[in-house]
Automatic annotation (TrEMBL):
Protein name as annotated: Molecular chaperone HtpG
Highest taxon of the lineage: Bacteria
PROSITE patterns, per the entry: HSP90
Organism this protein belongs to: Adhaeribacter terrigena
PANTHER family named among the record's database cross-references: HEAT SHOCK PROTEIN 90 FAMILY MEMBER
Organismal lineage: Bacteria, Pseudomonadati, Bacteroidota, Cytophagia, Cytophagales
Pfam families: HATPase_c_3, HSP90
UniProt keyword terms in alphabetical order: ATP-binding, Chaperone, Nucleotide-binding
Length: 608
C-alpha cells in the first residue's frame, strides 16, 4: 500500500535556497547522516540496557558507509532503533523539514548567512545538497511493526511504501545528483569521514575498515590515563608534530557541560603554530576548528579538543560572543590553564623554567590580553636575565632593590634586546653590577609596557638608551676636568665634525675608562618608533621621523685633551674618528661614512 503526501511546509522552494546557501559546505551532509545513524544506534543500546528493548542487540552495531560509483549511490546503514512509517512522517516529514524551513525563513535576508551556515546542523535535510532523490529504508526495533520505505526528491512531495527490509535499522540511500560527482569518489568520502567522524562514539566502517576511535581519551577520567595515553592521543590529532610540553584535562558538568584536553605545544616553527588548531566537538562530532569565540584569543595558541553540547552551534558569531555559556566556558578555561601553570611552577620550578622558552609567549600574551589571567600569572610569569637566571616579578624587585633604585625612589629595570649588538652597553652595566634582563621576543616590546604599568615605581630602560650614569640616576655628582670654555669649544668641534642635526651632542662627565663617545637613542623615542613600525598606538607619523640620537662626548677621556691641544685642522678629524668608532661599535656605520672612516684610519696608522 503506497501512500503519497505533501510535506506540510510553507516555503515551496526551500531546496534551491538551502542548496545555494550551503554551497561551500556540502560535505557536511555526511556528518549529519552518520551522526543520525550513530544516535539511532546509541538509543538502541540504551533501550536495551534499561530493558525497554528485549530483543537481540546483535554483535555488529557498526554504522556502515558505502559508495557505488556506477550506480551513483551512497548508502549509510545502521543497526539502530529504526523508524515505523508513522515515525518517518513525524520525524522526517515534519521535524526535519520544518527545521530546514525555519532555517531559511530566519536567515535568508541576513547578510552573514554564509557564516551562519557553516555552524548550522541542518540534519537530515542536508542530504539534498548532494542527492537528487533520497530514500529511507527502515525497520523499527518495535515488535510487530512493518518496515517502511520513503522516497523524496527534495521537493515537498514524498512517497511511503512498505519495505522488504527484514533487519532492524535504517539505510539512507542517496542517489547522487549530477553536480555532486565529487562525492562518488571513495577518497573524498574517506577524507570527509576522517574530518568529522574521527571520534564518533559508535564504530563507523568504510571500505571494510573502521575509520574512527569511538573512545577518545577526553571522554575518560584522568585517573584512568597515563602520560603515554595523552601523548599518543596528541599524535593522533596532529601527526608528525613534536610531543607536547604538558596538558590539561578539562571536565565540567555544571553549570555547563564540557570535556576536553588542551595541550601546550612545543612549536618548531611558525607554520605549526597556525596549522594545528584546537578542535571543537559536540558529543564527539567534529564541528569546527574555528574556535575563535569559544576560547579566549590567547588560548588559541594551545592545541587539543573541546567537546561541549552546550556551545550553541546554530547561531551567528555575534550571538556566540554574547552567549552566557560561551562566556562561562571562556572564564573556566582561562582559570584552568592558569591553575595548571601555577601547579607546575610550584611543584617543579626547575622543570617549569626549562619549558619557559616554549611557553613564555603564551603566558605573556595571556597576561597582556586578559586581566583575570594576569592576576594569576603575575606569580608564575618569569623574567630571565642575560645570565639565564629566572625570577618572578616580585623576586626581581627584591633582587635589584639595593643597586638599581634611582634617586627619585623608582627602580630601573635594564633590559637588552640583542646581546650581540648591545654588548658594549651590557658590559658597562655589568661593570656597575647592574642586572640586565633579556627581553628579546616580539611580544616583549608589549610586555615591557605592561610591566611598567603593573609593577609599582618601576621603569624599564634598554641598556643602550642612555650612558651608564644616566641610565639609573643616582645622587652622585661627577667631576669634569674641562672648563666651561673648553666644553663649549669641544661641543662646537664635534658638531662640525658630525654635521648632522639629528645627532644631539652633549659633553658628559663620564669615567675615563668609559668610551670617548657613546651614541644612544632615548628610550621614549625608540619605543615610539618601534610602535610606529608595528603600526600601533596611532604613532604612524613617528615612523617617518629620522632616527635621532644622543651623542655623549666623554669630557674626562684622555683623548679629549688631545683634541683640544691638536692643530686646528686635526681637531675635527680626531673628533670624527672618535664618533665613527662609536657608530661602528653599534653597527651604525655604513656606505660613504664607512669608506671615509677606513681611509682616515689608514692615514692615522701611517702616521704612527
Ligand atoms: N538513521 C536514523 N535512524 C532512526 N531515526 C532517524 C535516523 N535519521 C534520522 N532519524 C530521525 O529523524 C529525526 C530528524 O533528523 P535530523 O537529522 O533532521 O534532526 P536531529 O538529528 O533531530 O537534529 P540535528 O539538526 O542536530 O541533526 C531525528 O531526530 C530522528 O528521530
Amino acid at each position: 500500500m503506497a501512500e503519497k503526501g505533501t510535506i506540510s511546509i510553507h516555503t515551496e522552494n526551500i531546496f534551491p535556497i538551502i542548496k545555494k546557501f550551503l554551497y561551500s559546505d556540502h560535505e557536511i551532509f555526511l556528518r549529519e547522516l552518520v551522526s543520525n545513524a550513530v544516535d539511532a544506534t546509541q538509543k538502541l543500546k540504551r533501550l536495551s540496557a534499561i530493558g525497554e528493548y528485549k530483543g537481540e542487540v546483535g554483535e555488529d552495531l557498526k554504522v556502515k558507509v558505502s559508495v557505488d560509483k556506477e550506480a551513483r549511490k551512497i548508502v549509510i546503514s545502521d543497526r539502530g532503533i529504526g523508524m515505523t512509517a508513522e515515525e518517518i512522517k513525524k520525524y522526517i516529514n515534519q521535524i526535519a523539514f520544518s527545521g530546514a524551513t525555519e532555517f531559511v525563513e530566519k536567515y535568508k535576508d541576513k547578510p552573514d548567512a554564509n557564516q551562519i551556515i557553516g555552524q548550522f546542523g541542518l540534519g537530515f535535510y542536508s542530504a539534498f545538497m548532494v542527492a537528487e532523490t533520497v530514500e529511507i529504508d527502515t525497520k523499527s526495533f518495535k515488535e510487530g511493526t512493518e518496515a517502511a520505505r520513503w522516497i523524496c526528491d527534495g521537493s515537498t512531495e514524498f512517497e511511503i511504501t512498505a519495505s522488504e527490509k527484514t533487519e532492524r535499522g535504517t539505510d539512507i540511500i542517496l542517489n547522487v545528483a549530477a553536480d555532486s560527482d565529487e562525492f562518488l569518489e571513495p577518497s573524498r568520502l574517506r577524507t570527509i569521514l576522517t574530518k568529522y567522524c574521527k571520534f564518533l562514539p559508535v564504530e563507523v566502517e568504510f571500505e571494510g575498515e573502521v575509520i574512527n576511535n569511538p573512545n577518545p581519551i577526553w571522554t575518560k577520567q584522568p585517573s584512568e590515563l597515563t602520560d603515554e595515553d595523552y601523548t599518543k592521543f596528541y599524535s593522533e590529532l596532529y601527526p608528525f608534530s613534536e610531543p607536547p610540553l604538558f596538558w590539561i584535562h578539562l571536565n565540567v558538568d555544571y553549570p555547563f557541560n564540557l570535556t576536553g584536553i588542551l595541550y601546550f605545544p612545543k612549536i618548531k616553527n611558525e607554520f605549526e603554530f597556525t596549522k594545528n588548531k584546537i578542535q571543537l566537538y559536540s558529543k564527539q562530532v567534529f564541528i569546527t576548528d574555528e574556535v575563535k569565540d569559544v576560547v579566549p584569543e590567547f588560548l588559541m595558541l594551545l592545541h587539543g579538543v573541546i567537546d561541549s553540547p552546550d556551545i550553541p552551534l546554530n547561531v551567528s558569531r555575534s550571538f556566540l560572543q554574547a552567549d552566557s555559556n560561551v562566556k562561562k566556558i571562556n572564564t573556566y578555561i582561562t582559570k584552568k590553564v592558569a591553575d595548571k601553570l601555577n601547579e607546575i611552577f610550584k611543584k617543579d620550578r626547575a622543570g617549569y623554567e626549562a619549558k619557559w622558552n616554549d611557553i613564555n609567549v603564551f603566558v605573556k600574551y595571556g597576561m597582556l590580553s586578559d586581566e583575570k589571567f594576569y592576576d594569576k600569572a603575575k606569580d608564575f610569569g618569569l623574567l630571565q636575565n642575560i645570565d639565564g637566571k629566572f625570577f618572578t616579578m616580585e623576586e626581581y624587585k627584591t633582587f635589584v632593590q639595593a643597586n638599581q633604585t634611582a634617586k627619585d625612589g623608582n627602580q630601573v629595570w635594564i633590559y637588552a634586546t640583542d646581546e650581540e649588538k648591545q654588548h658594549a652597553f651590557i658590559e658597562a652595566a655589568q661593570n656597575r653590577s647592574y642586572d640586565v634582563l633579556k627581553l628579546d621576543s616580539v611580544i616583549d616590546s608589549h610586555f615591557i609596557g605592561l610591566l611598567e604599568q603593573k609593577v609599582e615605581k618601576t621603569t624599564l630602560k634598554r641598556v643602550d638608551s642612555e650612558t651608564i650614569d644616566k641610565l639609573i640616576e643616582k645622587d652622585e655628582t661627577k667631576d669634569m676636568v674641562l672648563s666651561e670654555d673648553e666644553k663649549t669649544k669641544l661641543k662646537e668641534i664635534f658638531e662640525k665634525a658630525i654635521d648632522n642635526k639629528n645627532m644631539m651632542v652633549s659633553i658628559e662627565p663620564l669615567s675615563p675608562e668609559d668610551q670617548p663617545v657613546i651614541i644612544t637613542m632615548p628610550e621614549f623615542m625608540r619605543r615610539m618608533k618601534d610602535m610606529a613600525k608595528t603600526g600601533g598606538g596611532g604613532m604612524m607619523f613617528m615612523g617617518n621621523m629620522p632616527d635621532s640620537y644622543n651623542v655623549s662626548v666623554n669630557g674626562n677621556h684622555p683623548i679629549i685633551q688631545r683634541i683640544l691641544k691638536a692643530r686646528e685642522e686635526s681637531k675635527e678629524k680626531i673628533a670624527r674618528q672618535a664618533f665613527d668608532l662609536a657608530l661602528l661599535s653599534q653597527n651604525l656605520l655604513s656606505g660613504a661614512a664607512l669608506t671615509a672612516f677606513v681611509k682616515r684610519s689608514v692615514e692615522l696608522i701611517e702616521k704612527e
